[in-house]
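Appendix C reproduces, verbatim, an entry submitted by the partner laboratory led by Prof. M.T., so that reviewers can inspect both the input and the predicted structure.
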Amino acid sequence: MATINFYLRSDKNPSKIYVRLRNGRSSDMTVYTGFIIDPKHWNSTKGEVKQSALFDDKINLSRDLNNLKNKVIEELNSSSSKGLEINKKWLESVISNEDSKIEETESPKYIQDLMNDYKNELKFKINPKTNKPISENTIRGFTQVIERLKNFEEYIGKKHFVSEVDLNFKFDFVNYMINVSGFSQNTINKSIKQLKTVCLDAIDKGLSVNIQIRSTKFNHPREVADFVTITEAEINQIRKFKGTDYHMNARDWLIIGCWTGCRVNDLMQLSMNNIHETEKGQKFIRYTQSKTNKQVDLPIHPHVEEIIKRLKGFPRPISDQRFNEWIKDVCKDSGLTQEVYGSRQNPGSHKKEVGNFKKYELIRSHTCRRSFATNHYDKLPNKIIMAVTGHSTEQMLLNYIGETKNDHIDDFLNVWNK
């Protein structure tokens, strides 16, 4: 509900009278009314001319302020029904009687439209961290959240202006994604982050956005990742796998991924051009991470060296989809069939499900990277592992490999017991 109050900003004579409009929690604006008064005739508690001063011009001033308040209320109701944006410029127009400034073309900015505009703009932007164009994955992520938003608004039968995106909107959107769409915590977390990003961008463009978008409550928590890794013993099992040509190709990439820690898009780009040699004659792999733009130098593991020698180069690149599909077959036939707790994408609904599954069912391209970090943890200094994984802080690395706050207790006890 809107509230309208008059007040003075100083005790000087004469003082300007200001009007403050608070339109629920969505907007708060203050504008000079054009009226002045001697502060001694003003009731600062009630925000009006003192009753004792109601004579001659003071009677007229009190009436004018009352008329102005009624006018603001009337225009507010009319403009809101038309979907106009209620901002400081709008209030100035009402105060100054410049009706021509109150145009419908100023306001109707639906959050769906802004999301689409932002996504399209990403195609022409440069990521300041990598100095490269915004990745296709990032753009695809905004396409997905726009679809979720569209489905949500169709479900409730209402399109929202950007000024209506507040904590209540966030609650309803999150509730829909959980109870209707069945999305995971992390998918919802990302969706809310993307929504907030677009709203903050709208502020930079001069649009009126609900102040609650800046609230620390405008977020959604991530869940602790449930993931599996491939141990060194299991890598040796996988090395013995024999199968079709394309399965063998995927197997080789899986082994290389586990010993390089590459993200899949970087992994499939590796070639003999990435092989370099130190002054001592030691061969190593050098590549630049596409996500962080960081250069990584890594010695060639004996398993990787064996593959390169056998193939006289790296395996044939394959798509993410095929890689994820075939390495499950490889791991199944390699004996990774024990039941483990974890999460996977349901093959039918494509939604995340958590529970006990055969281990090979949980293997995916990112398993390589996590396996690299986990298998080297406690064997190499964290800063060396971080140089390969690209994590900026040790805490990020520990979160990534699932190290808990109490794991150090076991380390102490193991040492003391010895």
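The mean pLDDT is 84. Additional entries are available on request from the coordinating office.
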